[in-house]
Design brief:
60% of the residues lie in helices and 2% in strands. The protein has helices at residues 4-18, 25-31, 33-42, 52-56, 61-64, 81-90, 104-123, 126-146, 148-151, 157-170, 177-188, 209-216, and strands at 201-202, 207-208. A two-stranded antiparallel sheet has the order 1-2. A hairpin with a 4-residue loop joins strand 1 (201-202) and strand 2. Helix 1 packs antiparallel against helix 3. The radius of gyration is 21 Å and the shape is globular. Residues 212-218 have low confidence and may be disordered.
């Protein structure tokens, strides 16, 4: 009788033997039908459908990049908070991972939680997009404070939200959505002029820009 780990081993073995240039749900159905049947029955997302992210993350890196995701026919935006609540309720004791991850297990849960909302957003669920922007903004604010290559995004709140929405639309590969977003912000920050703020801190955060203005203009 198949279980998840055995199914993944069978699938990876078939991929190694056949070396397909692209991989999809159809490829799995044709080449490993027993694995497909197990996945169809047992590996499901919170709101229905197959959880292909859980499957593809267990493939070799080379094959992950060859995965072709089914494009949702539903492109018209819709509002359905119930779908978002199903995801959030499943992880209600782990919502802190949106902001902080203390262990490797926390990081895995964070990735699953974020990607679940991303996939709903890709279907057109505006409620999921809004929820994702709300939570992901905590991580982005932390990056702006910690990483010089992201700092230039300080003050560009509306543009940041548009970047997050763009990453939701463009995210394809299994893996960390936050990692994908970080790289996108890092790349697009090149050449962006930083916005100056009177709250910018200097001298190991002991003085701000406004302190200098006040001291120079008594």
């Amino acid at each position: 009788m198949l279980d998840f780990n055995t199914s993944i081993k069978i699938l990876n073995k078939a991929l190694d033997e056949k070396e397909p240039k692209t991989i999809s749900a159809s490829w799995i159905y044709i080449n490993t039908p027993n694995v497909y049947r197990f996945i169809w029955k047992n590996v499901r997302i919170e709101t229905g459908g197959i959880d292909w992210d859980r499957v593809t993350v267990r493939l070799g890196k080379t094959f992950q990049k060859r995965w072709i995701r089914y494009r949702y026919k539903q492109t018209k935006p819709y509002i359905k908070k119930e779908e978002v609540d199903i995801v959030l309720n499943k992880y209600k004791d782990k919502l802190y991972t949106f902001i902080s991850t203390a262990t490797a297990e926390d990081k895995k849960i964070q990735d699953k939680l974020v990607i679940s909302l991303v996939r709903l957003g890709q279907k057109g669920n505006v409620s999921a997009q809004q929820e994702l922007i709300k939570w992901v903004s905590y991580a982005v604010d932390d990056w702006i404070d910690r990483y010089p290559q992201i700092y230039k995004w300080r003050g560009y709140r509306e543009e940041l939200e548009n970047k997050i929405k763009g990453c939701v639309r463009g995210y394809r590969y299994t893996g960390s959505f936050l990692g994908y977003l970080f790289r996108t912000l890092e790349y697009s920050a090149r050449g962006k002029p930083p916005l100056l703020s009177l709250d910018d801190q200097f001298l190991e955060r002991k003085r701000t820009r406004i302190d200098y203005i006040i001291s120079e203009n008594p």
